[in-house]
Structure formats: structure tokens, C-alpha cells
């Protein structure tokens, strides 16, 4: 054997190569002739320069290329022969070519998928959140859907006092301790839902009880974690004038109205919205339980993970964050500052995601989890039921995009793995 393998840790191997009497002359001569065809040297037409001149000018370069080609070929032959699953790119070092003796030696260090076995988890116990749906929750969901068809109207009784759930049309102006009244703390005929917590703590509570036309000064302190540095813990006075009080009038539930949401009758609207809420609550309960399971598995199973996988996942997380940050007005400089500030958080999340992914893959192999077309069709049916979208439209989205289809298959594989795993542990 022309190589030996050292195990550095669970996911790193060092392969030491040593070859004797290696003749690279054929490769070198072939490469020189190829170089001769394209070389443009003064006094010679392209491809007509003497080979000896090509050798003199390009010999070392061609020799290095031949050596690199040999090293790469032997490296990949070795990992194929040993069945080593390489992650990222190899690091070559200590390359030595003794021309006279024709000996070649080099070292390749590679990261691999970690070799580990899961510890015993049969004693794991978890408590799952209730999936029971209350009548109040169903009513809230229905009102949220109907809210898009509601109308904002002034309250009829002019003596009505402002309360949670009502809307204030107001003029306001903030005054700092030094008397400054920044434009950023002013608003004219601003519409605010009382109880929405849209303003800083205490503002909306301070307006409760006001009546139309009333003016009031509210003393407040900005939160310590407020986004504007100059206003953190700042004491301010808000001078407020309540111009008008409005309320949201919900439409009357009828067969005609629910048709605008894609339902045929009020009864269908009620049953489908309840079904949607049941599915959503089950999904959230499952997600919370699955996260707790992963956290337990990661904490109970220690193994080395490839740095390349962590780096790739950090890159994916940053790219994901970039999309939403750019939408919110970030520029490249702000993105750079954001990445630097949250670098530790990105690394921590990436490390957990890589470890949990490797553990789930190990479990899916143990339970022989497979995903076929029937699983995908079933999942699309569930998505249609929960979203209210047409099944054919969802199908066209996922079947027409290989990346989306692959991600959906992976998500289904995870779900099926969790279902198998939960049969071997205790879930109350």
C-alpha cells in the first residue's frame, strides 16, 4: 500500500502518501507538447517554437502541474478505495518530489462525516403541549379572517372613553428632558389601536379613559433596550390630543361573505377554520416537542463535527438573514456590522443545526425511513387543508422546482423519523 491513514478525531483523517520510482516524464512531455501548440514566442509562429525552448521557459511550471495532477489522482483513488466520505476540500502539505530518485511523498488532511454511535435514549421523557382547541381560540381565528372585510367607523357616542380594542386618531409630540422636541417623536392624525403595544410601554395605558377632543401629557421613560441609542432610558413627556375615537365594525357572517374566502356556506367556513386551527396547533405542539428532543439528543451525544459543515451552515444562515434585512432597508455596510455583532449567535445556531441534522440522519438510517411520492402527495394535501390553497396550485409549486421538492422530501423524512423515534421514548 502506498499510503497510511491516521485518525485525528471523529471527523478528521490524515493520509500519508509515499511513492517510489514514480516516472512523470510521459505526463511532463505530453504537457510540454500541449504548451508548445499554444505558446507565442518572439520570432516563432504559434506552435512552431522548439520543444527545448518550451522546456527551458515552462519546464518548472509544467512539472508542478504534472505533480499536482498525480497527487490529486492518487488522493481521490485512495478515498474511493477506502470509502471515505470527504467533507469540504483536502489540505495538502509536505509535498516532496525527488527528481533523481523519482520519489514522491505528500500528506492530505481531510474532514469526513463523523463516526459516532447514539447513546441509549430509551429513558427519555417529554411532555407535549396540549393540542386541544377552545371555542375562544376558534372565535379569535374567525375574527382575524373576517377582520380583512371590516370597516373603520367613528364611534357614535361622543362621550365614549378610549379603551382597549378601540382606535385613537391623535396628534402627539414628544418632549425630552432638555426641552427638545424631535421630529421623530411627532405625529399628526396618527391611527393607533389601543392595546396593540405599538408604542413604548405606558403610552397606550396612559391614553385609556381619554375622550374625543381631550388633551393630556403622559410622562414616560424609554426602555433600556430601545433601538435608538440616544433614547435608551430617556425620560420624556408626550403631549397628546385625542382627535377622534374609531372602532372596527365586523361584517355580518353570511354565505355570500364567506364565498369571498373560498367557502360555499357559513357552516363550511366554521368547520374549515376549526380544522385549520386544530392542524396549526398540532403543528406548533409537534415543532416544540421536536425541538426539545433535538436539544436533548445534542446535549447527550458529544462528537466532533467538520468545520467545513459549520462554515457552510453559517453562510446559509447569513444568506437567509440577508434577504429579510435587505427588505427592511439594510445596506451592505449595515449587513457587515450585523454579521459581526451576531457572529457568535450564527456559529452557535449553525453548530446545533449541523449536529442535530447528523443525529437525525443517523436515526433515519436506524429506522429505515424512506420518502416516496405517496408521502409527498399526502403532505401537499395537508398543506392545502391548512393554507386554504388549491391542491393543484401547491403541487405545481413543488413539482416544478427541484430544490423545493428536495426540501419538502427532507422535511417529510424528518417528520417520519421523529414519529418512529417517539415510539421508543415516553411522551406525556
Mean pLDDT: 90
Going by helix content, strand content and strand pairing, the class is alpha+beta
Principal-axis shape equals elongated
How large is the share of residues in beta strands?
Answer: 15-25%
> What's the number of extended β-strand segments?
11
Structure in words:
The protein is of the alpha+beta class. It folds into three domains: 110 residues, Alpha-Beta Plaits (2-Layer Sandwich), CATH 3.30.70.1050; 99 residues, Chitinase A, domain 3 (Roll), CATH 3.10.50; 165 residues, Trigger factor, domain 2, CATH 1.10.3120. Strands 6, 7, 8, 9 and 10 form a five-stranded antiparallel beta sheet that branches. It has a four-stranded antiparallel beta sheet with strand order 1-2-4-3, with helices on both faces. A two-stranded parallel sheet has the order 5-11. β3 and β4 form a beta hairpin. α3 crosses α6 and α9 packs across α12. It starts with a strand and ends with a strand.
